[in-house]
Amino acid sequence: MNSPWKTEVLAVFRKEAMTELRTKSGLATGALFGFATVVTVAFALFNINPNRVDAVFRDAPLKDVCASLLWTIVLFSALLSLPRAFLAEEENGTADLLRLMARPHAVFWGKMLFNILQTWALSLFLSVLFIAFTGLEVPLPGVFAFCLLGGGASVAGAVTLCGALAAQASNRAALAGAIAVPLLLPLLQWGVTGMKASFGGGFEGGGIAAAVGMVSYAVLVVVVGPWIYAAVWKS
Amino acid sequence: MVTVWSFLVPDGADFPRPELARIFFWHFPCPMMLSALLVVGVYFSLQYLRASTSEAKRDWDLRAVSALELGLVFGCLTMVSGIIFSYSQWGAAWQWDPRQTSFLIALLIYGAYFALRAGHGDPDKRAANSAAYMMAAVFPLLFLIFVFPRLPQVIRISFHPNDTVMGGKLHGQYLYVTLSLLALVSVLTVWLYRLRVAAGLLHIKNPDGQLETHRRPTGPTVVARPVPLSSEGGENR
Description:
The complex is a heterodimer of chains A (235) and B (237). Chain A has helices at 5-23, 25-44, 61-81, 84-92, 95-101, 104-134, 141-166, 172-198, 204-231. Chain A has 235 residues and is an all-alpha fold. Chain A has one domain. Chain B has 237 residues and is mainly α. Chain B has one domain. Chain B has helices at residues 2-8, 23-27, 29-50, 54-90, 98-119, 123-147, 152-157, 172-204.
């Protein structure tokens, strides 16, 4: 294991990408679940204009609801597909081989980078569908994209770490999601604020502040995650 | 004595139901103990991850889980007493107050820690993964308990007061009872923590100090059916 750190990270990343491209199970599961949920939400909003502003309170309550619905869809789609990064290694018996071939930080970085890209792709796909089906307007697309990128990276980092911690437990798939959601609740509050602002339902400054908060959370998870994983690497 | 005293102080002023304002005496120490036990639990989890021998790891894990279990109990007491206070004073048990909500999320993170422990059968994996989870959870927990409730935009809209004790808003007997109960609950917490650690150590060790897994049988082995050794005995005798 004297190869450069970057080589190991790229090797793990390439392995994840090739496995996913071969089976497409993670993307397919997340995308199918998300698509079905978007359609269900669209049924609920059928014939309702989510952009309508209340004449008395000058607020758009449905934009709040749509922002939280979108984040719920993205979060649960990610929870279905991302923990597999570490769970599959334990189930297939390849975890010990990985411990022999690479360093813990490199393994975590490789898997997390792939999961971040996968979450970004999934959230972009689901967001486009959501906006198309509900007819939501997005007057601040920059804030929207910023929230999606920061939130997606945070969700991917946290769920990857929780998947690593739950990989050797019983009922590991459900447990990984169960322990990740409480850690992500503060992030989701920022996500809803940011998305609502991007839909024109709040202050642009508040939306930008929320997006910055999400990016900060992502940076924290990305920096701290590998060290935490390395602490349980050998157990 | 302090309990009796808490019922003898005058009713609280500026409350819709002044006689029930004394719930505060029992509500206030609980989040203080939760915060202290959280810091202690995080420290012990970090020490577990840094320990090198299995005995040291076992001890640090026991101390961490003892502190965090007690912290969860105090967290639930905080939530319940807060709900009772809210219902008695403002007629609503749950108001989505920012402080109430952030505390609920903190309790969910605590619950996830114990769910992760329950999911691992192997004690070493259980200890390692739960200690790592506590390291990951410490930043959201510190934010939810110490930072978020003190943000200006949260203070503006929250029903929950922020500086009742530290801001000098308690006077006379109310202050003395509050501080006395805080001291009493602190002593109780330390006592309960030490009991929990002692119980955990007893669970691991048997009375003569050996690990149960290493215990050897002490008496002679009893054979149920003695088998004759010589061929002269024979089976048809």
